[in-house]
Design a protein that fits this description.
mainly beta; Ribosomal_uL3_bac/org-type; Transl_B-barrel_sf; 2 domains; single chain; ribonucleoprotein; RNA-binding; Ribosomal_uL3_CS; 5-stranded antiparallel beta sheet; globular; 13 strands
């Protein structure tokens, strides 16, 4: 993959609200709405100690989390059961624990890479899963029209090769769609609208949104992150 954008900013975990349509320049376009819940910088990892630069972010309010994560949050003095995730970046300049990350991290016209898990479709045959043509409709084929046919050989090598396309579980796999363009941003409700409806995942599922690597970085984006205000000013319920 040819990486054009060498600068690395923070990626954000957002919620896939769903699909709709909007009008731009008298043209009707399908869009996907992504919502950013309250997101805060919980911890910082530096190059000198960890070998790379990254931040630990917390978002949302979960009903249950694993005990190690709960102990980690208590150690940081956080009462909320927020969802934790890590994002690498090039430079830690201006990054401080307790800062709130806003939807102003992105700008209209910017291209994004969005990663999520595709819809799970259960067990599927080879025609649905791998687009096989199936067997002939007549001439000796009986009750096996949608089967895959032979999978291996006889004596040499006498086995089925690893990775052979066969029937199995379809969907629920990690998928990244690239070069999704931002058409509009609702700063009041922390919602961005990206062009197209091919964002992976079901409604209200989490997707990881970051700058596109195959497009140059937009000149107006804040670097390394778009911040709103201090956690102590607006999140007294989050931190003890």
């Amino acid at each position: 993959m040819k990486r054009i954008n060498s600068l690395r900013r923070i990626g954000l975990l957002m919620t896939n609200v769903g699909h709709t349509a909007m009008y731009f320049d008298n043209s009707r376009m399908a869009v996907t709405l992504l919502h950013l819940s309250e997101t805060y910088i919980i911890d910082i990892k530096g190059q000198d100690k960890c070998g790379y630069n990254s931040v630990i972010l917390g978002t949302g309010d979960l009903k249950k989390i694993a005990k190690p994560q709960l102990e980690y949050l208590k150690k940081k003095g956080i009462n909320s059961k927020c969802k934790l995730y890590e994002s690498r970046l090039t430079d830690l300049f201006g990054i401080e624990c307790g800062k709130k990350v806003g939807v102003n991290h992105f700008v209209v016209g910017q291209y994004l890479d969005i990663t999520g898990y595709s819809l799970g479709k259960g067990f599927a045959g080879v025609m649905k899963r791998h687009n096989f043509s199936g067997l002939r409709a007549s001439h000796g084929v009986s009750i096996a029209h949608r089967s895959q046919g032979s999978t291996g050989q006889c004596q040499d090598p006498g086995r089925v090769f690893k990775g052979k396309k066969m029937a199995g579980h379809l969907g629920n796999s990690r998928v990244t769609v690239q070069n999704m363009k931002i058409l509009s941003i609702d700063y009041e409700n922390s919602i961005i609208a990206v062009k197209g409806n091919n964002v992976p995942g079901f409604k209200n599922s989490y997707v990881f949104v970051r700058d596109a690597v195959k497009k140059p970085l937009h000149k107006d984006v804040p670097f390394p992150v778009g911040l709103l205000l201090n956690m102590s000013d607006d999140a007294n319920n989050l931190v003890s």
